Amino acid sequence: MDYKANYAVVGFFLIVLFAGLVTGFVWLSNYSNRAEFKNYLVYVQGGVVGLTIDSPIFFNGVKVGSVDKIELDEANPQLVKLHLKIKQDVPITKSTVATLIPQGITGLVYVGLSVKSPNAPLLTAENGQELPVITYEKPLITQVTEVLPDLTKNLGDIAEGIKKALTDQNMNNLAEMLNHLNSITRDLDQQTENFNSSMKSLQVFLQNGAKASQRFEDTISTAQQAADQLKKTSNKISLSVNTLNQQMMPGAEELIRKMNDTSSNLQQITQDLKSNPSILIRGKTPSPPGPGE
Prior knowledge:
The chain has 293 residues and is α/β, with parallel strands linked by helices. The chain has helices at 2-36, 140-165, 168-275; strands at residues 37-45, 56-59, 62-72, 79-87, 96-102, 109-115, 133-136. It has a seven-stranded mixed barrel with strand order 1-4-3-2-6-5-7. Strand 3 (62-72) and strand 4 form a beta hairpin.
């Protein structure tokens, strides 16, 4: 009995020790994962077909983590809540966006991360959030698929509008407008040629005007020089006349006075000869004596 009791105690302790070792290993493993990875959330609007737990997460083509959990959002079932496990040293910023990217033709998808701005601050959990939330951006193929119906409708409307516009009457009007446009274009070409010709004539006129202006300036300069020379000559003549007046006028006045006296004497002699020609022989008769002589 004692041996059986000892075996039972030893077996119990072995079971407890094994359970403790397993629990410790699991705890250490989880602690190691928590130390090496950081958890984030992504809310996807729409389906996530092809995405599974442990689907890889790539940051610019480099694997940085995996999808840890996929569930519907309790507040809004239209959103799919993704739990991402990303390496601790990967800089997830506020400009980081997550996108679901297909893996070839397999039908599987992975989570792709990219950064819009390299200088954005690190992403942290805001008030009321359990974990930091990475912004979700729809893939290009999804965006194109969503707008394709509207694009098709718009193209149909455009085609219908073109069909209505291309009537016979509108085509005739368009042809007439084109003819008018051609006529206007020809008139503009003619006016352009006339304008160019006028500009050439104006250029020649301005060149001739410039030459004439230069000649006129030369003539004015020559006339000014002649006027200056004439003024100098006039001053010299005036000076000479003044000098002549000062030197010759007194003698000339005396000569004129003597000539006047001589003229008077000649006139008297002439009168005497007319009245008594014999004075040329006898000479002039003395005057009769006066009283008392």
